[in-house]
Amino acid sequence: MPAITVCIDTNSINVKQRDPHINQLEEWHRRGLIEIRRTSTLMEELMRNLGALGEARRQKATLYKEGRDSRAFTMRRSTLRGGDTLRGPKAAQWIPQIAKTLFPNTPFDDLPQRRQHDVAHLAIHKLHGWDIFATNDQHDILAHKDTLERELDIVVRSPKDAVIGLERQLGAAKGGVGDGDNA
After folding, report:
1. Phi then psi dihedrals of residue 164, to 5 deg
2. Residue 20: how many CB atoms within 10 A of its CB?
3. DSSP characters for 83-126?
4. pTM of the model
5. What pLDDT is attached to residue 91?
6. Using an 8 Å Cβ cutoff, are 147 and 122 in contact?
7. How far apart are CA 56 and CA 35, in angstroms?
8. Which domains, from first to last, does the chain contain?
9. 124-163: b or e for each residue (b if 16 or more CB lie within 10 Å)?
């Protein structure tokens, strides 16, 4: 498994290949340099996308392994009775703090569904300890990236900034997107 895991937001499902930075992340994923992951919330959101484009986005999302909102462990596997399943930590434990960071004046339950999904994406990302959350959401998520990183250890980047940072980290500047002028 690659050492770097990038979780992508729903807005980063790049079916039409128009975003050169997402294209670069996908190429590194194909080459095994990083692993792109998606949250279970992403698939819930994509179920509302109708038509051929929606189907193409759902199909593309299935290329990435899914992280769920809880982690379970099976112990004492037995041929007679299977295993005992223990529930691990749940993403819900981080929802109040993430919601307060992103939307300080609105309780989580009063947020519109789209914003609740933003919070859920980040909570699942935190649960799994993934390295970077890549999103194009300038207003609700990227605007709070410094606070999310400082207070919750959640690294949030735009696709462009993720590529720039990963180029340095991977030593992959050769063949990278660079400043985004290559399309």
Report:
1. -60, -45
2. 19
3. EEEEEEEEGGGGHHHHHHHH-TTS-GGGS-HHHHHHHHHHHHHH
4. 0.81
5. 83
6. no
7. 21
8. 5-170 (3.40.50.1010)
9. bbbbbebbbbbbbbeeebbebbeebeeebebbbbbbbebb
